[in-house]
Structures
1.
Amino acid sequence: MLRVAVIGTGMIGRDHIRRMSTVLSGVRVTAVTDVDAAAATQVAASIGATVHATGEDLIADAEVDAVVVCSWGPTHEQYVLAAIAAGKPVFCEKPLATTQEACLRIVEAEAAYGSRLVQVGYMRRYDVAYRALKKVVDSGDIGAPLMMHCAHRNASVPGFYEKESAITDTAVHEIDMVRWMFGEEIAAARVLIPRKSPNGGPLQDPLLLILEMTSGILVDVEISVNIRYGYDIRGEVVGSDGTAALGSLEPVSVRRSAQVHSPVPADWRERFLLAYDVEFQEWIDSIAGGGAPLGPSAWDGYAAAVVSDAGVEALRTGSRVSVTLAPQPALYQSLAVTS
Ligand code: NAD
Ligand code: ISE
């Protein structure tokens, strides 16, 4: 039984604790921590876990085999580095860290350690619809991929969400997803600013992020984070001989009174429920016997951060911003971007 400890018992921390405690196999959540001690104590009591005063104490606990980081983005670096220093596998929710420099420090620390310990929570790679879409693209059935149209719509976002968060916190999922979907890096980013939604308060909402892949594939991402009607994630690849789109996910569609009614997920927990389950079960199974994690790596987290920084600069300056990655340490060279 893998003994996992969770740092951060907010929205996603609780959701991952729930899945590890009641859905998945081979795992037990034995310790938690949060700067909000009352929140940590309440969660710990519900599962019979220990509460630690700090993330560092929790990582040092000899009864903890692996760590899950679900605290706010700016705190990720310190905990991931501490887990690497302790030689413990660490699953870090996205983003790996909030700057490319911080991500690079993690990459360098893991490379110096000599084997993989870090996995980043880019769960779209585990979603049944995205996996089916990638299978079609890889099969060549729609010819050469030329473009991808994406929409990332949130009904609303929390109060701490800032101007750049549309790219660093939201579109960063598409940034990781297209690297995986097409098996290549992103060469440049641009941002177009449409008419402002009256629902967005001080935020510039929506935004249109344009990503150029190294092969010339163009990706457009509509980012709307106050769309009110629900959580709507879309993706369509346009190939030279056909197109392929994420399928409809609703379990039921009701036709009544001359209308069709189909549910829309409320938020990411509902839309990606099963993807998170698969993501965590695969992570648990991969590290349980002392093995290395197989999912999105620290290098993937770093590459996403570099593109995300380029997107933020493009938003700020209105210009096309090129993406340049640091030399890749040997540890990551055998990992295809598609793994
Ligand atoms: P949240 O605000 O609900 O929870 C974060 C928790 O971390 C809070 O309880 C806070 O008190 C705690 N915290 C903050 N600093 C801490 C520290 N130094 N040590 C310990 N605890 C600390 O936020 P959330 O929505 O749960 O997001 C948490 C992380 O998960 C973010 O990085 C976010 O981007 C990511 N996230 C990922 C997805 C996804 O789809 N993969 C979805 C939501 C959130
Ligand atoms: C949140 O942190 C997530 O990761 C969700 O998947 C995303 O849709 C949302 O925009 C982010 O704020």
Note: The pocket of ISE (ligand 2) is lined by residues 94, 154, 157, 169-170, 173, 268 (CB under 6 Å).
2.
Amino acid sequence: MWKQNTNNPLENAKLQMQQAFETHPDFVQYQDQFAKLFYPDRTIEISIPVRMDDGTLQIFTGYRSQHSDIRGPYKGGIRFHQDVNADEVKALSVWMTIKTAVVDIPLWGGKGWVIVDPRSLSRNELEQLSRWYVRWLYKYLGKDTDIPAPDVNTSGSIMAWMMDEYSLLNGEYTPGSFTGKPLSVGGSLGRKEATAQWGIYVLEQILSYSWEKIAGKKVIIQGTGNVGGIAAELFHKSGAKVVGLSDIDGCIADENGLNIPEIFKQKKLGKKITDTPGVKKIDASDFFSLESDIVVPAALENQITVENAGTIRAKIVLELANGPTTKEADEILFSKNILVIPDILANAWGVVVSYFEQIQNNTNHYWTAEKVDAHLQETMKKAAQWVYETAKSHDTFLRSGAYIVALQRIFEAMADRGK
Ligand code: NAD
């Protein structure tokens, strides 16, 4: 049995999978495959030199973890953030393998990271950093090898620079080497709203099993970026009340519902959410205990912990961030009968739409928004149903259900390839 260490995301991933592994009696034949699952095929560390605008040279450390390519190329985002360690990158790459298996697409796990606070870089410095990342990793990347995408603090423009650098090195336009690109250079329609919209579709699907709806529910959301910001706008449009919002600048609350369109209009003009007039500013330690029906962590890992899980008053946690709940916190939520819709199901749209983007790039034929949405809804419905029914038939919670669905596919593929 692994050591309990909730601060280490790789340990958390192992503990969560161990639980699913033990729930399913047939998995006993896959002991070897299970043991191998926690070792990425390779984790590459690189040193990236950037000539800063003031003429000095700064060296940044970057990583790419390639977890497994058993059923297809490696796939996963690149994050630019100042706080990271190699274990975190490895854990995120394992999660990508699990996530792609839950939704049953032929791509497997990878993840990248550069230790940097991108807000401290100019546009020119950021572009150099992005291009050097590709130069150092070129021979390990590619449309049939490893296809990165955006993650925390990376964007479509960064993917466009990276794809451009890759294409230059490759000697031909290779749009399928990176996904999450702008539409002008081979991006897919439906990408921007991707993760948040999928999460809300999944929530609707799960709520529909008990004849419930999103409209009228009170929601609190941690994170106002690509995922949390769009989730706030979509919840608002669906008739839910967003009663709490938090990000790096602080936390705000209004029990009657925050004015989401106005907050995000102001945010686009450079205002902080805490600058919103007429809202209550609260301490981060009180955020998750706000009265609500649905809690949406959409920022970083390990945010719901033993310290705050017991204070959550909602009935549902919709995990749009990756790994936001520690193993022990998960058990507290389960004991309080709080339904956790796990990250590996709830935030998988990014990778599904990335897959659709890749199909479009590789066939050089582009889909309408309606076609993207129809394919996504079909994929989501199947995945949510597999997870829900598997959890029900094993009398376990949704996270274990999702892991069982994924592990079944992974073990079969590993065994068939003789791994
Ligand atoms: P982002 O950089 O756009 O936003 C991150 C948000 O978290 C920001 O609002 C930031 O202020 C907030 N934040 C950072 N530290 C915080 C703290 N200590 N307390 C409260 N808020 C804090 O990133 P994103 O793309 O929205 O990603 C958010 C999460 O969703 C990550 O876990 C990411 O891995 C996951 N995710 C992203 C995608 C995607 O397509 N962007 C897909 C799947 C999963």
Note: Confidence is low (pLDDT under 50) at residues 1-5.
